[in-house]
Design a protein that fits this description.
The complex is a heterodimer of chains A (about 400) and B (about 90). With about 400 residues, chain A is of the alpha+beta class. Chain A has three domains: about 1-85, no CATH class; about 105-205, Serine Threonine Protein Phosphatase 5, Tetratricopeptide repeat; about 250-390, Immunoglobulins (Immunoglobulin-like, Sandwich), CATH 2.60.40.10. Helices cover about 30% and strands about 25% of the residues of chain A. Chain A is built from eleven helices and 15 strands. In chain A, strands 6, 8, 9, 11, 12, 14 and 15 form a seven-stranded mixed sheet that branches. In chain A, a hairpin with a 6-residue loop joins strand 14 (about 360-370) and strand 15 (about 380-390). Chain B is of the alpha+beta class and about 90 residues long. Chain B has one domain (about 1-55, about 60-80). Chain B is built from three helices and three strands, in the order αααβββ. In chain B, helix 1 (about 1-10) packs antiparallel against helix 2. Chain B is globular and about 30 Å long. Classes of the chains: A alpha+beta (about 400), B alpha+beta (about 90). At the A-B interface, helix 1, strand 1, helix 3, strand 2 and strand 3 of A face helix 1, helix 2, helix 3, strand 1 and strand 2 of B.
């Protein structure tokens, strides 16, 4: 694509050609950083919900002066002939308006209780409603999914809305896990949808990754800084799964249980809130799954990490036949004496191939130093964490 | 498709900075993965027509208002009518 960019600069200059892009990305700031890196100075539209329904990228199109597709993935040598040809106006003019509701329509809920109306309402809320309307979008898509449970796009879009709400920090009650479940449901409806599959792989285990999804971010930042520019900041840094390189074999690791007798006092005050997600939401017995555990200081208690003591330690018990690439995980403390950041633990599990379908609960715990911001007291606490892994075809 | 994915990645791993060998290896690795995924991609192209949007030569490109990356304002391919358009559908991942 950027090669096209180079070869079309002169044509753009003399006004004979327009160049535009549509990016399949739910983080617009990541799309902006990518564009800054490649000096893509043409207009780009963000299709965060896969409204176009395309199932593979990249695709380059020649579109004529009437909006008609004239070539799909053409060779660059075909460009002069395309530019010189004058295409007839189509007998039936292409539509000029969007099917997606725009801002003025977002104030009122759909008049009809139909699948299409709720899905379209959800689309409008995600595209134009901002973070403030994400919960309404979730409600709209959930209604659409109830009315049409076999519609793949609505499950995918509901997953995007959950993940967006998770990224916004507005809801920490399990949106990431809900997103993973919805994306799996979407893919179950249409296993050939490449964009949807990629979304699961983005957060999934390394053995199922085709490549690292966002390893380019640091390379892009370095190249941009080298040019004397400031890289566009990202609201949400890529997670471990998003940066991880693929791996052919599952490599199991062991460790020692940091609290084998369960002596450490439990976090009964709930100073740290835990959210977990398993990706993919359902895996075949013998296949890997990536576990995400997010630990957030309780905002109501004004809780914060005490960074002057030991690092956070996470441990997971493995039933017979199960493997983990990390059984004991240490999360280094931040530099300031206290901090309030989300701490994330990611590890990969593999169930035994002979395991039966169903839900398996794995026991884990985290040990951490935390302070209660309300009365200023600091504690060393243990929090038991149940991880539910769904197995099945 | 495979060729264009490859072209896309080779550009992503532009061989002009340090660590070139590693990047070339990475791109070779990705190429091999693409070859393995070719069947899936072909299916994906078939799905392209079956998934709501029908990207076919001779057909209009779907007019759907999407937020512009620059400022979030509504934009669609209809805004580009009147002159020839080279349209890239891509992902940064």
């Amino acid at each position: 694509m950027p090669r096209w960019h180079v070869s079309t600069k002169d044509l753009l200059h003399d006004g004979r050609l327009q160049v535009a892009g549509i990016v399949e990305e739910q983080h617009p700031d990541r799309a902006r950083l990518f564009a800054q890196w490649h000096r893509m100075d043409w207009p780009v539209m963000v299709d965060s919900l896969n409204l176009l329904g395309i199932s593979s990228v990249p695709v380059t199109l020649f579109i004529d002066e009437h909006g008609i597709i004239r070539a799909i993935d053409p060779d660059r040598s075909a460009l002069p002939a395309f530019l010189n040809k004058s295409f007839d106006k189509p007998a039936v003019a292409p539509p000029a308006v969007s099917a997606v509701p725009e801002r003025p329509m977002l104030a009122t809920r759909p008049a009809a209780d139909t699948f299409e109306a709720w899905r379209q309402y959800g689309d409008g809320l995600v595209l134009w409603g901002g973070v403030a309307r994400l919960s309404d979008a979730v409600t709209a898509y959930e209604r659409a999914a109830t009315l049409a449970p076999r519609d793949g796009p609505v499950h995918f879009r509901l997953g995007v809305a959950y993940r967006m709400r998770h990224d916004s920090g507005a809801d920490r009650s399990g949106d990431f896990a809900r997103a993973a479940t919805q994306w799996s449901q979407a893919l179950a409806v249409n296993p050939n949808q490449y964009i949807w599959r990629r979304r699961i792989q983005q957060y999934g285990p390394r053995m199922q990754k085709p490549y690292s999804f966002y390893d380019w971010v640091n390379e892009a930042r370095a190249a941009i800084r080298e040019r004397g520019e400031s890289p566009i900041p990202l609201a949400v840094e890529p997670s471990g799964a998003e940066l991880a390189l693929p791996q052919k074999e599952f490599v199991a690791a062991a460790g020692s249980n940091p609290d084998p007798k369960g002596d450490i006092q439990r976090d009964a005050e709930g100073l740290i809130e835990v959210e977990t997600a398993v990706v993919p939401a359902r895996s075949k017995p013998g296949d890997p799954a990536r576990i995400h555990v997010l630990l957030n200081p309780n905002a109501q208690r004004k809780a914060h990490w005490n960074n002057e003591a030991q690092d956070l330690v996470f441990w997971i018990d493995l039933p017979p036949g199960w493997q983990a690439d990390q059984q004991r995980v240490t999360v280094p403390s931040a530099r300031p004496p206290t901090s309030r950041e989300t701490r994330t633990i990611e590890l990969e599990l593999r169930s035994p191939p002979q395991a039966s379908a169903g839900e398996v609960t794995l026991n884990a715990f985290a040990l951490y130093y935390v302070c209660d911001g309300v009365d200023g007291v600091c504690f060393y606490r243990r929090q038991d964490i149940s991880l539910k892994v769904r197995l099945g075809n | 498709m495979t060729e264009s994915e490859n072209q896309f990645s080779l550009t992503r791993v532009a061989p002009s900075t340090s660590g070139r060998a590693l990047k070339v290896n990475l791109s070779v690795m990705r190429l091999s993965i693409w070859i393995k995924e070719m069947a899936a991609l072909v299916l994906g192209m078939a799905g392209l027509a079956s998934q709501g949007a029908s990207l076919q030569v001779g057909q209009p490109f779907p007019v759907i208002a999407l937020p512009a990356m620059k400022d979030g304002q509504p934009m669609s391919v209809a805004d580009f009518r009147g002159r020839k358009l080279l349209l890239h559908l891509y992902a940064p991942w």
